[in-house]
Amino acid sequence: MRHAVILAGGSGERFWPLSRDDRPKPFLAFFNDTTLLRATFLRVRAIVPPERMWVVTAAALAGRVRTELPELSADHVLGEPMGKNTAPAIALAAGRIAAIDPDAVLLVLPADAWVPRPAPFQKAARTVLGLAEDEDRLYLVGVAPTRPETGYGWIEPGPLLNSGPARTVRRFVEKPSSAKARRFLQSGRYLWNAGIFAWKARVFLEETKLHLPVLMNAFQGIENGKLKRAALEKAYQKAPAVSVDVGILERSRRVAVVPGRFAWDDLGTWAGLARLDPAFRKGHVLTLDSPDTIVWAESGPVAVIGVPGIVVVRSGEATLVASLDRAQDVRTIARMLRSKK
Questions:
Q1: What pLDDT does 227 receive?
Q2: How wide is the angle at C-alpha 187 spanned by C-alphas 185 and 192, nearest 5°?
Q3: Are residues 138 and 242 in the same domain?
Q4: Are residues 106 and 52 located together in one domain of the fold?
């Protein structure tokens, strides 16, 4: 049967001060009152029923996930004792699901992407799930790029497999230089890696054992779903911190990519939000002669006068004021604050 695995982790750094350790980006509501996590759940619910949906998150956030998604049973919210990137998170879910459904096919996706129109996404998801049911491959959904983005992973597809639409993957390029990103965009051959995957749980675990044996050794017994809290903490202490892309997909010979024709954005920084809505306002906000300015006031009011191209965010007792072209440095500030406790 088909299952969905939503990855809802994150350190809460890039959208500080709204996003914190106890409320990372998936729990923020940007364009309406629906959080990114719930919006992801609603998109996927048309493909996979809630009783076969799973969320992997930090153990400390499991209660928040259950509140946000009351349709899920409590045992379908898998809490990680520590963040070790996406490979351990997906392996944890794959092992748990395979224990109850050995023939499970998984749709894996992040909880925090911006997808404005559900229908084209759902069409692409059904396509890769169908392919994954028929072939023992690891399928990726690649999104057509719209700009020379240096913060994303890019995929160069190879020849068609069978009659298509899947293609082999010629290579992965993670966060290319500006010059490379421009060449990739102009060539028309490359796709963005959206972190959306489909595969049989069994096939993913086989490839994990082949390419990340240290991880599978740490997770010994995961296929039987027997890792209890203490054992899970011990397993995560031994597990390598590695992304699924670097640890498995870039090494596997069973990877294929399917182009997805839908609007998508990682929504990675405040500058990314400005790209989607250059006059974003939320909360009790007043502006005067301040074009291209992002203002979000959880507590306010907040007024901005005569200052273009900045982001102003007020949350609790914290305030951020930054030039949008320095938005990537918000993570540095968040880490500095964490180091100072």
A1: 64
A2: 45
A3: yes
A4: yes
pLDDT digits (tens, 9 = 90+) for 131-154: 999 999 999 999 999 999 998 999
| pLDDT tens by residue, 222-267 | 656 556 788 889 999 999 999 999 999 999 999 999 999 999 999 8
Indicate the residue among 252, 268, 284 that finishes a domain. Answer: 268
Question: Of 143, 97, 105, 120, which Cα lies nearest the Cα of 46?
Answer: 120
* Kind plus residue range of the DSSP H or E element containing 51: none
pLDDT given for residue 188 in this prediction: 94
Same domain, 186 and 282: no
Residue indicated by tokens 């993570």: 331
Cα distances (angstroms) measured from residue 44 to each of 47, 74, 124, 235: 5, 18, 11, 30
Residue type, 132: A
155, 259: one domain: yes
Domain with 327 in it:
271-339
Residue 178: CATH number of its domain: 3.90.550.10
Sign of the four-CA dihedral 52, 57, 62, 65: negative
| Domain shared by 195 and 333, yes or no | no
Q: What is the mean pLDDT of the chain?
A: 93
- At residue 137, φ and ψ (nearest 5 deg) are -130, 165
Instruction: Give per-residue pLDDT as tens, 90-126.
Output: 999 999 999 999 999 999 999 999 999 999 999 999 9
Share of residues in the chain with pLDDT > 70 (%)? 97
Pairing of strands 191-200, 281-288: unpaired
* Torsional class of 195: left (φ above 0), alpha (ψ -120 to 50), beta (otherwise): left
How many helical (H) and strand (E) elements, i.e. helices and strands, does the chain have? 11, 13
Same domain, 237 and 252: yes
User: Are the C-beta atoms of residues 339 and 44 closer than 8 Å to each other?
Assistant: no
Q: Are residues 142 and 71 in the same domain?
A: yes
259 and 283 in one domain?
A: no
φ, ψ (nearest 5 deg) of residue 199: -170, 160
Summarize the confidence of residues 22-39 as an average pLDDT.
Answer: 93
Residue 77: what pLDDT? 96
Number of domains in the chain: 2
The enclosing H or E element of 77 equals strand 77-80
